[in-house]
Amino acid sequence: MVVDTKLYDLLEVSPNASINDIKKQYKKLARQFHPDKAGAEFEEKFKEISVAYEVLSDPEKREMYDRYGEKGLSEGGFGGGMEDILSHIFGHGGGHGGFFGGMGGFGSFGMGGSSRRSQKRKGEDTVHPLKVTLEDLYNGKLVNLKLKKKIICTSCKGTGGKGNAVQRCSSCNGNGIKVSFQQLAPGMVQQIQKVCSDCNGEGEVIDAKNRCKKCLGKKVCDETKILEVQVDKGMKDSQKITFHNEGDQQPGIESGDVIIVLKQVEHPRFKRKGNDLYLKLTIGLTEALCGFVIPIQHLDNRELLVTSSAGKVIEPDSTRVLLNEGMPHYRSPFDKGHMFVSFDIIFPQNNYLELEKLKLLESILPPRAKVTDIDMTREDVQEVMLSSYDASMDNGSSNQREAYHQDDDGDDDGHGPHGQGMSCAQQ
């Protein structure tokens, strides 16, 4: 009687399938879901298929699985570095003395068989954000980061106690999970798994009398460590700096990494795009027409004298470039991007000059554009004057028309706003 059919379902074969049928189906699915062909998102699917084939192609393992399901694989000593994948298939967590004795790492599988390589299971990575300024990324910086981590207890060497203090949990047989079976119908059995309440899923219990006094049986202690984080010139926002095996320690598990993620704070003057810098300057009309020298402080505290020669006109919203004054390239700091400078030009206020001086200025400036002679006596010609723009006018001409009619309705003598507006337009 087959207790669990999950592995058969993965290979899409029936529990009565022959070894040849299983091999053929595995080759078909392995070609279909291999990450090199189907993409990296199918890597876990490919691993699950390979684990299913590893069990069902071996007569002894298949018989154990058919009789007892996952529990049979556990007590039969099967593992071979596949705990994490099988944990994923059967829906329970790995580690903590789980079903396969803490063995980790997934073996590499061929098309016609399998091969395993022992690999120590690795713990989770620890991610820390690190705020940096644009100046830090331009000049480089050494940051001392205080990190709290767990280390293996030096008193008990990670055993949790002395002598025979640590023992296998008798309730779950060291698995950390209790397995029970419920018959749903003749020939159909449902497997039920629960975390062992006696050991809290650890798979082992520690005698309170012999428990380590330093770690209180937890096997690990807290420690504060200082990491020297080198922010290199040219690094970018969200770039990662990895400290291998500096994560939390746990007995029997390779420590994870500490990953520092750079988070650049917004700069008040400069914007960065790739290796280029962008700066906006505001100048007057005199500077735009007659040239200027404007000092700006760079990210390395150099003072750059941004110069525009007399006679070189700066147009509104135009952009100029300062070559090789951008960000240094990462790992090639002597190569730099460019700095792009865009300009806002402030024009004089209305009536800033008397009429006579305006005429003098006009004589100096380039001549006006020529306008074709127009007969002002024609009925289809009307002179209109420009007015100052108000953002409230964006509500649409319909609102203006409503206001126009409302005012007109309230004034019967013909000298209200309507009459005034017409008179102004004719002037």
TrEMBL record:
GO biological process, one term: response to heat
CR-type domain boundaries: 140-224
Domain J, residue spans: 6-69
Pfam short name (any one): DnaJ_C
UniProt entry tagged with the keyword Metal-binding: yes
Entry-linked SUPFAM superfamilies: Chaperone J-domain, DnaJ/Hsp40 cysteine-rich domain, HSP40/DnaJ peptide-binding domain
Swiss-Prot/TrEMBL keywords: Metal-binding, Repeat, Zinc, Zinc-finger
Region (Disordered): 391-427
An example Gene Ontology molecular-function term: zinc ion binding
InterPro entries for the chain: DnaJ, DnaJ_C, DnaJ_domain, DnaJ_domain_CS, DNJA1/2-like, HSP40/DnaJ_pept-bd, HSP_DnaJ_Cys-rich_dom, HSP_DnaJ_Cys-rich_dom_sf
CDD domains, alphabetized: DnaJ, DnaJ_C, DnaJ_zf
Tree of life domain: Eukaryota
Zinc finger (CR-type): 140-224
Protein name: DnaJ homolog subfamily A member 2
Naturally occurring in which organism (per UniProt): Hydra vulgaris (Hydra)
Protein encoded by which gene: DNAJA2
